[in-house]
Design a protein that fits this description.
177 residues, mainly alpha
Length: 177
């Protein structure tokens, strides 16, 4: 039951973030909607016991990629003045009340003892497929050739991009002289 509630809440959060990404006129707000969607997906991964995928989701996508997006947004300039007045009356009080209800509900679940943070903590549950051990075992036994070929192709692509960047720079410098 708790998993269903978390899924519905996080699914709604992911959908709201996706709608914000598409509908926001300000690119910074669009990026914040993307952050909300990515974090909601990470929570859904945790509920499904895919902890490694959730960590990768937060570190790579919500951390690195979103930071890159924000740097690009700041470089193109979004420093125009905006109206910061609240247009929805009692908005802060409504959100504070909703947060209080969620916090009290979570505290009641934990206090009554009917909630465990991960079902894998129980002894009867086998090790799930989303763990680091299970994924690492598959990557370095069954899929080792694919992983090595991918690493080689990414290295070749990086070297090629650097070579093209230096070639174009030296071509422009010799044309100017």
């Amino acid at each position: 039951m708790v998993e269903l509630v978390i899924f519905v809440l996080m699914g709604s959060g992911a959908l709201a973030g996706g709608v914000t990404v598409v509908m926001a006129r300000n690119p910074v707000r669009s990026a914040m909607g993307m952050l909300g969607s990515l974090v909601s997906l990470a929570v859904i991964y945790v509920v499904n016991l895919a902890h490694l995928v959730a960590a990768v989701q937060v570190v790579v996508y919500a951390g690195a990629v979103l930071t890159l997006f924000l740097f690009v947004i700041m470089f193109i300039g979004v420093d125009r003045a905006e109206d910061t007045s609240e247009t929805i009356p009692l908005q802060r009080k409504l959100v504070a009340g909703l947060a209080l209800v969620v916090a009290v509900g979570a505290a009641v679940l934990v206090w009554r003892g009917r909630f465990s943070w991960t079902p894998a903590a129980a002894e009867s549950v086998p090790i799930p497929n989303g763990t680091v051990q299970a994924l690492g075992g598959e990557l370095f036994t069954t899929w080792v050739l694919g992983v090595e070929i991918t690493a080689l192709l990414l290295t070749i692509a990086a070297v090629g991009a650097i070579a093209l960047a230096f070639y174009r720079r030296s071509g422009k410098a010799s044309a100017e002289k």
